[in-house]
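Repro:
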Amino acid sequence: LNPTQIIMYVTESCADCVRVKKYFEAKGISYRRVGLEGDAKAAEFVTQINRGFRSVPTIVFPAGSILVEPGWEELNEKFPASGAEAGYNFAPANPRGALLVSPSGIQ
């Protein structure tokens, strides 16, 4: 498994998927979104990768590494460059980890 770009497997009701999507967008990281709803092959792949669980987001990188439900620390380790030059801040806005980000910072 070696895609040519980052692939993020998601579901429509996944708050972590939205958080990672906003993180990627804020950092200018391009990726391909694959929704599990209505895509049996994608759902089967995610379930197989995650030992029977439909864990999302599941993010597959071109070099073959995979992140599953990554937290802030994992994302920042994988993408160490700061988004500060674009005026973005990265930190949980509340204890549940929701990220509300805008060019002027967290709202």
